[in-house]
Amino acid sequence: MDTIRFVVPCLLGVEGLIAEELRDMGAEDVSAENGRVLFSGDASTLARANIRCRYAERILVLVGSFEAHSFEDLFQGTKALPWERWIGKTDRFPVKGYSLNSDLFSVSDCQSIIKKAVVERLKTRYQIPWFEESGALYQLQFSIMKNVASLMIDTSGRGLHKRGYRPESNAAPLKETLAAALCRISQLRHYHQLYDPMCGSGTIVIEGALMALNRAPGLTRRFTAESWRQVPREVWQKERDAAKALERHDIDFHGYGSDLDPAAVEVAKANARRAGVEDLVAFTVRDLRDFAPVTPTATVITNPPYGERLLDADAAVALCREMGRRFTPGRGKSYTVITADEEFEKHFGRKADKRRKLYNGMIKCQAYMFFK
After folding, report:
1. Domains of the chain as residue ranges with CATH
2. Strands (E), 131-250
């Protein structure tokens, strides 16, 4: 197959991490923008990115982009794109998307016009009057931002953060992709001892173990594009085999998660079993006030309640102060805390050595890092 242009939508703040991992995978023409990364490759790259990407939300084929100030612009621009390269006579092609800061703001109208334009294009190419849409799924996605329409096809299906090990979660779970990003920016290594004293459903500890093993996050799940004729079945098998061959077995990693909630700890244990990392991690019921690493060195990464969702503001402040008391500086120790509290350093009791802006869903956060 010819070169394909891809778009990777992602959480704000992790674009650079995704660009780096895509380059490491052999992707070409990689460029990072706000909330997305673009790259080029072939069918093998498509499969590889879905299987191995640790921080991305999904992998989309970029069919084309154009300016659209009117519905006629949107119709003609969509109709001009080579949809027959992807969509066959019997394939399904539903449409969804969004519009921001653009002249066209009715999402439902945009959906209808894009669908009609694709149908008209395919009618001309296939010389048939209607489409039964009973075959493989080609989910069309559009984004219209500042009057530039981008038309894409989703290759992933379920979001890539859905690794398959977390059918259950606590009240405010951290996305697996964000948990992995926190491990990456904390410079977690395969010989580190990782701690999360407010572990909830265990996502940070489990993602840390998967990273230490260099185990591809999408190795055991399925993707929409596996039913596409453009990506032969043997390509998927080859990429899964290649990903397995990259796993590390010479690691000295161990993860320790603790939480005040016994139910959350049981969920974390079940998630670790499903992820296949139960031998590398341990979860216990423990109050933050009793937190103390059991190893000489410790990489601590945690996502405390912010006040918006789980705790009231006073309780969240008290938690920050307790972290300041428990997270003591020392040789071989580092601490990363992600929070939406803009006065976290004041409550914690000292300035971070480094800060990084990240988004937890729609909540603007900072990852505060202490390592000196």
Report:
1. 4-154 (3.30.2130.30), 176-214+249-370 (3.40.50.150)
2. 139-145, 148-154, 193-196
